[in-house]
């Protein structure tokens, strides 16, 4: 018989292992030597010991969930307990049993982690619901739909929380999405209806613009085009592709009319350029009358110039303001001199000035008489008052006489 610390081989090749419960047969190895038999079964033990060591490392590293670890321990333990191998099988079983404490700690840690994630998930889901409800009450039709899709993806990525809370939050989230989608559809339906109405209006405006394109009533038609443009802007947008096509028609007709008008105005301006030359020469004559030294001569000369000015006809539009301004300046200068002369010879003002002189002279005579009486009475205070009164009235009299002379002159 060949012995080993944890087993032995009998003479007939039977291999036994020692356990706490005593020896048990693990196999037969009749073909080889006892040493070979023991090595075969101790190698099996080493393989089991390596598997236990590897499981220990995997459990402690946390690569396995507590449930996976517990299941692996049960599987390996069953293998070790009935293993046909020679070695300290009881020690391997004991080591496997010791993993229970580690697995328990990991299970508690996972439980706490899950609780933390659930709490965080609840907070995040409440945030998602709050944002969704704000979007449902908004009119952000461009970005709202995309944002709600993003919020839905965020919701799906979160772990579930307790069922009542999860269901309640989901109902609020779903209700907000439904309300937003319904309002958005209503908005775009209304926009579509408005665009269809705008299309009808703009088609009519385009036809009206095209009907005016060949008109030669430059002033009236320009006004009609301004009114058409106002109505075009008020109509609002039509469907994009149709709107662009109608605008091309409308703008094309308008451009055609204004190009023809500009061409006609250019030809007219060339014709009027000669008239401007004539008026330039008349302005030289007119401006020579200023400053006015002989009013009657200036008036006769200006009338003659005005008649020739009117006969000269129209001038280019860009010259009208300049030329008219210069001729009106000469006319105004003559009128100012004429008004000044009238002011000086106004009969009513002359009569009022003469009347003022008469009244002042009468008043002065009375003051002089009162002054003599005061002097004779020796009333010095009265004398002083009357002398001051007399001096003031005489001053006014001088001014009145000067005004009377100016009007009579």
Textual characterization of the structure:
There is one protein chain. Helices cover 80% and strands 5% of the residues. With 409 residues, the chain is mainly alpha-helical. Helix 1 (34-61) runs parallel beside helix 3 (89-136), helix 5 (163-212) crosses helix 7 and helix 7 (240-287) packs across helix 9. The N and C termini lie far apart (172 Å). The model has no long low-confidence stretch (mean pLDDT 88).
Summarize the topology.
Elements: E1 2-4, E2 7-9, E3 14-19, E4 22-28, H1 34-61, H2 66-81, H3 89-136, H4 144-157, H5 163-212, H6 218-235, H7 240-287, H8 295-312, H9 317-345, H10 347-377, H11 380-408
Antiparallel strand pairs: 1-2, 2-3, 3-4
What labels would you give this structure?
single chain; mainly alpha; 5 domains; 11 helices; 80% helix; elongated
Could you give a short description of this structure?
This protein is mainly α. It has 11 helices and 4 strands; from the N terminus they run E-E-E-E-H-H-H-H-H-H-H-H-H-H-H. Strand 1 (2-4) and strand 2 (7-9) form a beta hairpin.
